[in-house]
Amino acid sequence: MLKLAGASLVLMAALGGHAQAAEEHPAVKRPFDLPPSADLNYSISARQHGFNLSGDALVTWRAGAGKYSVNAESRVAMLGKLTENRSTGIVDAYGLAPTEYFDKRFRKDPTTAAFDRDDKTITFSQGDKNYPVKGGEQDRASVSWQLVAIARAAKDKFKPGSEWQFFVVGPHDADPWTFRVVGREKVRAGPSLGEVDAVHVMRAPPPDSKDQTLDIWLAPGHEWYPVKLRFTDNDRDYVEQTLERIVRK
Rounded to the nearest 5 degrees, what angle is found at the Cα of 201, between the Cα atoms of 206 and 225? Predict the structure, then answer.
């Protein structure tokens, strides 16, 4: 159960990562189209250490007037709230530009990462690591929404085999991530949505890494919102989130 609690859920990838060389810090400017503000309700199913768990999650996405915010909370029966993650910031020429990332996990103190855009430095509330701001950096709550915005603008370029790189900040450090488009698939969502045509995107960790694999299914017919997410560990434990309801704001 604690393993699940350590996995930050819902539209952000709480995947551990090792720090990599500074020269692997990508800063890529791409067209983007932010999706409309919405509340997204998800169901959670998981297998952790032989236990089958279920719960729910709520993501609130807001964008407008040159700013954005993402707030994600997950709950599991008997344990209550497991995770809370927030990303707030502005919208610049690269897309989402975080100013603060907040991460709170079950039975752990909250941590924050600050993006100082005047000093062009990323720092953390715990630890002494820092990274430069080059442009396009994301955090683990914003990266899925930046991916959505890029997919909406890329259209035919967002095709199977294409890869999309980001520099992603977590609670204590940051590293480059690569998402690869797998292809179109049918996904069974909640009763209000039914079967959904989705684009499967995968973030696989480096071959020598013990990180989780993240699969995201984006729904073009529903503003490209993530309709399903799946985190899978090397030992085949998993956390799966399925979209149940969309409330436009």
Answer: 135
DSSP per-residue codes, the chain: -HHHHTS--SSS---------GGG---------PPPPEEEEEEEEEEETTEEEEEEEEEEEEEETTEEEEEEEEEETTTEEEEEEEEEEEEETTEEEEEEEEEEETTS--EEEEEETTTTEEEESSSS-EEE--S--EETTTHHHHHHHHHHHHGGGS-TT-EEEEEEE-SS-EEEEEEEEEEEEEEE--TTT-EEEEEEEEEPPPTT--PPEEEEEEEGGGTTEEEEEEEE-TTS-EEEEEEEEEEE-
**Residues 122-159: pLDDT tens digits?**
999 998 999 999 999 999 999 999 999 999 999 899 99
- Write the pLDDT tens digit of every residue in 79-128: 777 789 999 999 999 999 999 999 988 778 899 999 999 999 999 999 89
Picking from 229, 233, 239, the residue whose alpha carbon sits closest to that of residue 16 is 233
Q: Which of 57, 49, 48, 54 is nearest to 77 (CA)?
A: 54
The pTM of the full predicted model, rounded to 2 decimals, is: 0.89
Q: How far apart are CA 182 and CA 51, in angstroms?
A: 30
Q: Which two tokens stand for residue 150?
A: 């890029």
